Amino acid sequence: MAVIIYAESDNNTYKKSSLEAITYGKDLANKLGTSTIAISMGTVGPQNLGTYGADVHIHCTDNSLSSFNPQTFANTISTLANNNSGDVFVISQTYNGKSIAPLLAVKQDAALVTGIVDIAETEGAFTVKKTAFSSKAIAHVELTANKKVLSIIPNSYKIEENGTEVSTTEQQVGSASANTTIVSTHKETGKIPLTEAELVVSAGRGLKGAENWHMVEDLANALGAATACSKPVSDMEWRPHSEHVGQTGITIKPNLYIAAGISGAIQHLAGVGSSKVICVINTDPEAPFFKAADYGIVGDAFEVLPRLLKRVKEVKGI
Ligand SMILES: Cc1cc2nc3c(=O)[nH]c(=O)nc-3n(C[C@H](O)[C@H](O)[C@H](O)COP(=O)(O)OP(=O)(O)OC[C@H]3O[C@@H](n4cnc5c(N)ncnc54)[C@H](O)[C@@H]3O)c2cc1C
User: Fold this and answer.
1) CATH topology classification for 2-171
2) pLDDT in tens, 232-279
3) Dist. CA 178–CA 285, nearest whole Å
4) pTM of the full predicted structure?
5) Where in the chain is the domain with CATH 3.40.50.620?
6) CB-ligand 1 contact for 287 (6 Å cutoff)
7) How many Å lie between the centroid of ligand 1 and the Cα of residue 289?
8) Which helix (H) or strand (E) covers residue 114, if one does?
């Protein structure tokens, strides 16, 4: 028995969410009295995965893994799990992780739970806590299958760096066949993926039009934040749908969510309500979003956002 963790990398570095997954996997392995195997593909990041809790690190070097294809990646993880007696899988719920986890669960005939926000209980029944009803509730789910795939929401688990370094074993797995081929990919550069962002600056219809979004982008750039928006904003094509958060959009859990000119409808809160700190800027003191806010600024976004930007630049010396 071993806990297998998929270590996703981007731009030659392991994603923070993967390091969270490795710490999660280590804590789970300790509870189960077993060890952890981190599996990476594509590029090797500079971080030593042992530091974060991997007992073994296998890097797969097959040519078919040089670009992302969920089938080949799931097949590879599955083959390595079979070769190494892996039966619990920990995957961060990133864009890529979301597509690998169900394929892997089918391959392994495993139970799959997504949206996990805390370490599994292993005394007696194996149960996990996951978000439910658009993050308005927490469900405790028991996994009864022998094999389990756990998909962890980024920013839910704290990284620990108290492990010991491990050497990386390179392997050609040779099982990476797929019945779909990714013909081409267009990668956004210089943007922080919304699902993994620790800081998010978001805006709604109160910003009046696409031409005013430079205020949101400037503040986000100064903070090192991702940008997001409400549904009507993406419906009106002021912003791309990839930025739409909420019940019908993306669910995020950043450390700080700044919302300007967003009313705070329940469907919007469904995607952002789990943010650690919420700061709301709205001209209407009765806007529902203030009820969910940790900090509220009753004011015009056209005045507040430039003032926030000025202050952030002063503090950061940029
Ligand atoms: C089935 C369903 C699913 C939905 N899913 C989603 C979803 O996933 N995500 C989502 O966001 N919505 C979703 N909606 C829509 C949701 O109900 C709201 O209509 C939407 O969130 C409102 O967007 P908004 O806050 O940008 O706009 P508005 O409701 O128009 O609010 C604009 C806010 O800006 C404030 N404002 C105006 N001018 C300024 C200014 N100068 N400075 C500061 N504040 C200002 C106003 O006081 C107001 O509170 C869904 C609706 C349905 C029915």
Assistant:
1) Rossmann fold (3.40.50)
2) 999 999 999 999 999 999 889 999 999 999 999 999 999 999 899 999
3) 54
4) 0.83
5) 2-171
6) yes
7) 10
8) strand 111-116
